[in-house]
Specification:
Blueprint: E1 6-9, H1 15-26, E2 30-35, H2 38-52, E3 57-61, H3 67-80, E4 86-89, H4 108-129, E5 135-139, H5 162-186, E6 192-196, H6 214-223, H7 230-236
Parallel strand pairs: 1-2, 1-4, 2-3, 4-5, 5-6
Bound molecules: NADP nicotinamide-adenine-dinucleotide phosphate (NAP).
NADP nicotinamide-adenine-dinucleotide phosphate binds near residues 198 and 203.
Length: about 240
């Protein structure tokens, strides 16, 4: 029997995050789930409780496109919990052909893959330190191999494409992991930090482009037979 842990998964209203939350809830862990959409979050609590038989599910709403929501989310967790065993920074998106940015002009793919995990890891570190063996997991992607990072142009203001934003952000996720790991080791922290690639999985990830063209839709269909299923993906974590 595994000891029950307190686990946060961001972006757990769909895809990998929801599946993983259901699996871990089924193993008896206390789950803190998160989403930006109230109705999807309500449905996720219901589905996870029903499928896992575990009622110890705590849900928080926050739109990570807004920095104040990210800080408020972390504050709410700090108000409600003394200890976090695992923080899984999973929320992410693949945007469309138009560059999308936060109010203070942070490109949105970068915001979700890099800035939010950075803020949450720092803000929740005291709770992770309170665990016997705190763990942070950032979600990267195999696509980081195709990154074309130049001149530390994180904002891609003049040279934006959805693919470049996504691939670069997943490389920066790995850079962030290395940087944070070094800092933790220098401070003799017992918290560990890793990033992972879940595998190619057919989810809603690529559905943010309202102008999605025929070519990208055909490509998703062609890639489906090569996709892992969600059980294979969550085994990687
Ligand atoms: N699928 C793959 O093949 C694959 C491969 C490598 C890496 N990944 C990574 O795995 C992670 C999960 O992806 P997925 O495939 O499971 O995608 P998904 O099905 O689209 O799920 C993404 C989750 O993130 C949430 N999210 C998106 N934007 C948000 C925002 N502004 N604020 C708060 N939450 C937000 C979504 O909320 P809603 O439910 O409201 O949309 C959803 O819960 C991502 O980091 C992705 O880059 C995926």
């Amino acid at each position: 029997m595994t000891t029950s842990k307190t686990i946060i998964i961001t972006g757990s209203t769909d895809g990998i995050g929801k599946h993983l939350a259901t699996k871990l809830a089924g193993e008896g862990h206390k789950m803190i789930i998160h989403g930006r959409n109230h109705l999807k979050l309500k449905q996720a609590i219901k589905d996870i409780q029903t499928q896992s038989g575990n009622d110890d599910i705590h849900a928080y709403q926050a739109d990570f496109a807004k920095k104040e929501d990210v800080y408020q989310f972390a504050q709410n967790i700090k108000n409600d919990f003394d200890k976090i065993d695992v923080l899984i920074n999973n929320a992410g998106a693949y945007f469309g052909s138009e560059r999308v940015a936060t109010e203070d002009d942070v490109e949105m793919t970068f915001m979700l893959s890099v800035q939010v995990p950075f803020i949450l890891t720092n803000a929740l570190m005291p709770l992770l330190e309170n665990a016997d063996q705190g763990r942070v997991i950032h979600t990267s992607s195999y696509m980081h191999h195709f990154a074309k990072a130049s001149n530390l142009d994180f904002g891609l203001k003049h040279d934006y494409s959805a693919g470049k934003a996504y691939n670069n952000s997943k490389l920066y996720t790995i850079w962030l992991t290395r940087y944070q790991n070094k800092a933790l080791r220098q401070n003799n922290s017992k918290v560990t930090i890793n990033s992972y690639h879940p595998g190619l999985i057919s989810t809603n990830l690529n559905n943010n482009d309202i102008k999605k063209n025929l070519k990208s839709m055909m490509l998703s269909e062609i890639m489906k037979p090569f996709s892992k299923n969600l059980d294979e993906c969550t085994a990687t974590v």
